[in-house]
Amino acid sequence: TWKWVVGPMFLYLCERLVRFWRSQQKVVITKVVIHPFKTIELQMMKKGFKMEVGQYIFVKCPAVSKLEWHPFTLTSAPEEDYFSIHVRIVGDWTEGLFNACGCDKQEFQEAWKLPKIAVDGPFGTASEDVFSYETVMLVGAGIGVTPFASVLKSVWYKYCHDATNLKLKKIYFYWLCRDTHAFEWFADLLQSLEAQMQERNNAEFLSYNIYLTGWDETQATHFAVHHEEEKDVITGLKQKTLYGRPNWENEFKTIAGKHPGSRIGVFLCGPEGLADTLNKQSISNSEADPRGVHFIFNKENF
């Protein structure tokens, strides 16, 4: 038995040593941004750190806990000179990080007072394959929108730098959220992309739909009064917020009709129930003919 055990144990110990060495490398917090509804953004730098879109890291803050590691999706793009995560304050550890970074204080926090951070990663996800398709559907549910912040930033950097060599030509983005609490920081990113695309006369590059799934008819009716205004009352975007859940069958059929004979990548970061729905729609709307439209489903769950 020992002959079968020694090999895997040796590989496991090597992997643990590599991860320990990476976690000991110095990480500098360059900026802490406080977003509404107790969400903070940590912008960091680390020597030799290289990332791809949609990847995640493990983070440890010894000032909060010397043993706990927590995974966070990277929200920065590889083209930026820093890497960042967004942390929603929802528990003891995130509350401790919030206080350790001085976010509970009114005065300006000096950089040298910020806590030490250990980072392990980055680690890959399915979202890295987004540049392998000409057309993609990105579906984020709640905080599952974070990997697509990295994707959308990187796509736009690549588009602005060399649009002719960018294989990706069309993005359909769907964001499903129970309430408006998560809108603030991500809506800022969408507003920036929306403005830049209009400046370059390519507003059709990104089609996005935001769905509020947790509102009742009374709340929706109150905001429907302002539907004719130029910008949405909730997000400040030109695209109006929708209420309820998407009709996925109609969405898939519409996209299939617009892109006949294409391989369309479907990327989800969300719960298992939504993954089953999108997987079934991807299969049922793909044609048997190899020259027809095909939906390729990719998922990551949290």
TrEMBL record:
InterPro entries: Cyt_b245_heavy_chain (IPR000778), FAD-bd_8 (IPR013112), FAD-bd_FR_type (IPR017927), Fe_red_NAD-bd_6 (IPR013121), FNR_nucleotide-bd (IPR039261), RBOH/FRE (IPR050369), Riboflavin_synthase-like_b-brl (IPR017938). It is found in: Cell membrane. Its cofactor is FAD. GO terms for cellular component: monoatomic ion channel complex; NADPH oxidase complex. Residues 19-129 form the FAD-binding FR-type domain. It is a multi-pass membrane protein. Gene3D superfamilies: Nucleotide-binding domain of ferredoxin-NADP reductase (FNR) module, Translation factors. It catalyses: NADPH + 2 O2 = 2 superoxide + NADP(+) + H(+). It comes from the Eukaryota. Its main location: membrane. One of its GO terms (biological process) is superoxide anion generation. Keywords: Cell membrane, Electron transport, FAD, Flavoprotein, Glycoprotein, Heme, Ion channel, Ion transport, Iron, Isopeptide bond, Membrane, Metal-binding, NADP, Oxidoreductase, Phosphoprotein, Transmembrane, Transmembrane helix, Transport, Ubl conjugation, Voltage-gated channel. The keyword Flavoprotein applies. GO terms for molecular function: metal ion binding; superoxide-generating NAD(P)H oxidase activity. Pfam families: FAD_binding_8, NAD_binding_6. Catalytic subunit of the phagocyte NADPH oxidase complex that mediates the transfer of electrons from cytosolic NADPH to O2 to produce the superoxide anion (O2(-)). In the activated complex, electrons are first transferred from NADPH to flavin adenine dinucleotide (FAD) and subsequently transferred via two heme molecules to molecular oxygen, producing superoxide through an outer-sphere reaction. PANTHER family: CYTOCHROME B-245 HEAVY CHAIN, NADPH OXIDASE. This is NADPH oxidase 2. It comes from Motacilla alba. The gene is Cybb.
